[in-house]
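User: Run a structure prediction on this.
Assistant: Running it now.
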Amino acid sequence: MAVCALGYLGVRSDQLDDWADFAGRLLGMQKIDRGRKALAFRMDDHVQRLMVSDEPGDSLAFMGWEVARKEDLPAYAARLEQAGTPVKVGSKQLSDRRFVEELIWFEDPAGNRIELFFNPMIASDPFVPGRPIDGFKTGPLGMGHAVLHVENIDLMLPFYRDLLDFHVSDYGLLPFPLYFFHINGRHHSFAMVGSGRAGFHHFMVEFQNLDDVGQGYDLAQEEDGRVAYTLGRHTNDYMTSYYAHSPSGFFVENGWGGRVIDPATWAPHETTAGPSFWGHERLYLSEEGGRKALREMRLKAARDGKRAPPLADCPWLCEALSKRES
């Protein structure tokens, strides 16, 4: 049995108009009205990828993870129940609202709602982006990645790794613990930040074209306070990206050129170079609140000559060469 992709995310917010503008105009998603109190957004041929509902509660409503086979749902349910995690079978009404064939749901040790589902519905009409873009990198890699703040990584790590079969890609321990997990070829579809608090840190969408990231960055800079991290490049997944403040307070990473790994041969390891080769200045942090320390890590990486392998600068070429070899 296997969880194979991040399929969808649910967010709670009473700022539906702001979300319509943010996800549609800035991110380039296609807005779908779901009545007075809810919105949904498309990124590809799936009926929906992001759902925003006007209801009370924490910002993150749920994470939807796709399983490879229908039989995986009762298998995971049995494993979770045996480990002491109550599991509920989603009703037909809930499955219909999520546009999937079947699902189960439960909570992780921090109380985040997790939905495992099988067979998402494919739309009959083509995806129409909210601004001119070449589209998002989704397909078997899923909608992107999701990252949580966690109070106790030692409690959360075995839940995702041992019960849900999320595989550690790499981890860093300074200046704070960071764990990254893969479930397909995307370097990570899930991560945890050991910040000592609970909540949603960010989700990432990956664009097909670097210019779509840059043009979105221009749009974001027109809004006072919208940019949270400046344009930069990560050390582990080689993603070139910037982060924007969402209407709900958490971040959304807008990226391009993410690393695709071979899960069969990948070995987890500790990283020490810090989160970014360059850029990603945390504009929301004070100098003594972490901004200075993270900048020093980037400057040290530069002095040490740390950089991505040359072929990673051209992911479309890597993909073409991979197809040619196979």
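DSSP finds seven helices and 18 strands in the chain.
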